[in-house]
Amino acid sequence: MVMVPEYFKEFQKFWGEFLKTQEEMLRNLTSMFDFSLKFNVLRNDIAVFRAKVQSGGRISIPEADRQALNIKEGDVVKVIIVKEGGD
């Protein structure tokens, strides 16, 4: 029977945990990459524009963007808000 030094067993345990961590990190990075593709501003179904918040919290989609995306009154759109500077 071959005796395996204790430090080697610890190294094997450490290496196994390290590999599991790396695998999880790669899965997370892949998931984040896939998710970020949904928000790629170069897609032809997304418009990026600045808007001023009006009374009642209303914002307007510029006419050129409405036309480009074929947005009609009553259509449902997804809005992602990012505040730019100011107070």
Give a description of the structure.
By secondary structure, the chain is mainly alpha-helical. The chain has two helices and no strands. It is elongated and about 80 Å long. The model has no long low-confidence stretch (mean pLDDT 88).
Fold blueprint:
Blueprint: H1 6-37, H2 63-68
Q: What is the count of structural domains?
A: 1
Estimate the mean pLDDT confidence.
Answer: 88
Head-to-tail CA distance between termini = 74 Å
Task: Pick out the low-confidence regions.
Answer: none
Helix-strand sequence: HH
Helix content: 40-55%
- What is the 3D form? elongated
Structural class determined from secondary elements:
mainly alpha
Q: Biggest sheet, open or closed, and with what strands and sense?
A: none
The radius of gyration over CA amounts to 25 Å
Number of strands: 0
Strand content: under 5%
The number of distinct helices, counting runs of at least 4 residues, comes to 2
List keywords for this structure.
87 residues, mainly alpha, elongated
Summarize the model shown.
The protein has two helices and no strands. It has helices at about 5-35, 65-70.
